[in-house]
């Protein structure tokens, strides 16, 4: 038993999780690697080659690293619980006219819970992942802080982690630049891994065609929703479309209709299969309501709090004020924000620290 303790490391076979395991191993921790099989892409009927954390090549890569450095490695199959929760939610949200964020849901309800259960069984004190983020504690609260490498920061997808998860988690790469991680891999003889391309796609939609995925997973869906209509901001008919689930708020390309000027999806009305289009200025919103809120830095807020709010992963954030409204959080922006999509995550920051986050319910002008 190492004096530093045992740590369970989630290993996808990619450079980040591999270097996380090696870094902890070199620091003297007793490392146990674990690879989670979340999805079998062949069952979805897609044509793309299986890639990413669920592919056989990636699983073998993770196992080989453990063999090379003499620590244990396990593979666990969580496809059933992943599919029942994450994929069903993904489908249900699009059919409800919202835009889901499955990576957040998976982290919050599947991966961390699965890791902690196995950590307990293996007597591991901590779990570690290759996320670019940091964990801080203050006033007996644990919270996520942005990574040193802001170009790789993944704090946005970790807003849902509970205090119980945070206090047992570690992100060794949070204080490193991506270039340093690549160099670390090169120095240890993992040249091919250092040059391995990164995937930014949803793991169960590796061809990045969520519309095709919906059609394959819900037989008959395209026939059930065909014959929808486009309308403008005043409700005037603009044309027809093949079904509201195949559109997202803020979408401009691939609308299938030519109107002589750029038009965007500003609203989706599933109850009457209607997609509302407007100009860029029609997407402007002054605030929104956020549900399923998870506080991190503070246990709650009694008074309005000034924060920077991100409404999507690549959003730079907007200065705003948040306040409680029963079980929801009301956000009022201090500048115009465009393309707020119900179903997406909203994450609030004080400086680099996550105050909390939740799921966007609605927006207002």
Describe the structure.
The mean pLDDT is 92. The chain has nine helices and 17 strands. A six-stranded antiparallel beta barrel has the order 12-15-14-13-16-17. The protein has a five-stranded parallel sheet with strand order 3-2-1-4-7, sandwiched between helices. With 365 residues, the chain is an alpha/beta fold.
CATH superfamily of the largest domain: HUPs
In terms of per-residue confidence, which ranges show pLDDT below 50 for 5 or more consecutive residues? none
- Give the terminus-to-terminus CA distance: 59 Å
How many domains would you count in the coordinates?
3
User: Spatial order of the strands in the main sheet?
Assistant: 12-15-14-13-16-17
Number of strands: 17
Might you state the CATH topology name of the largest domain?
A: Rossmann fold
Tell me, briefly, the overall form.
globular
Characterize the main sheet: 6 strands, antiparallel, barrel
Quaternary structure: single chain
Query: What class do helices, strands and sheet pairing give?
Result: alpha/beta
Strand content: 25-35%
Topology:
Layout: E1 6-10, H1 15-26, E2 30-37, H2 56-69, E3 72-77, H3 79-95, H4 102-121, E4 126-128, E5 133-138, E6 141-146, H5 163-166, E7 169-170, H6 178-187, H7 191-194, H8 210-217, H9 221-225, E8 228-231, E9 237-241, E10 264-269, E11 274-278, E12 284-295, E13 305-310, E14 318-325, E15 328-338, E16 345-350, E17 353-364
Parallel strand pairs: 1-2, 1-4, 2-3, 4-7, 8-11
Antiparallel strand pairs: 5-6, 8-9, 10-11, 12-15, 12-17, 13-14, 13-16, 14-15, 16-17
